[in-house]
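Hi, here's the filled form for the chain we discussed.

Project: internal
Contact: R.S.
Residues: 198
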Amino acid sequence: MLHTNRQKELNLDGVTSENKSRCKWCNLKNPLYIQYHDEEWASPKFEDSYLFEMLILESFQAGLSWECVLNKREDFRVAYDNFDLDKVCSYDERKITELLSNEKIIRNKLKINASINNAKIFKQIQQEYGSFYNYLKTFTSDKVIYEIDRTSSELSDNISKDLKKRGMKFVGTTIIYSYLQAIGVIYSHDKECFMYKE
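And the returned structure, exactly as it came back:
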């Protein structure tokens, strides 16, 4: 209840969080999802630590819903050493076994192995470009794209293709499009959503 009251206080325009229109994918019965939609999704966040966390989480989404991953996000953070890139790069068979036995996260061996592999390639890209965001900018020209009702684009095709060529797994064009939306490169709030912009 305190959280709800605080949200009401924060909305100075007189519109409470309860009667705002949101994107159709947002489950209004899940406070965690509402908070993610309102405060994080599509907001530009380009620090490499965040870009790494989201890339790993998005790869776990393959074949599942983002809500499923989001609900386990805090458990993923604990299991993955708060997504410390160097630590994840050094995960060995013992750590993989530990992750596979962790009932609080998504226990898919292919995805867990891919997360470690992808961490190493993420680090290589950082070393090559200075930061992972510098790498992304070679495709985006540091611009925010406004588009809705899509699940892939030429941009996500190109980034996906390059990441796969470098050896990353679970980075198909749909996953990468979802990733670019999440980090704020593609702004996709629905027209009916109170956060819609053109």
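Let me know if anything looks off before we file it.
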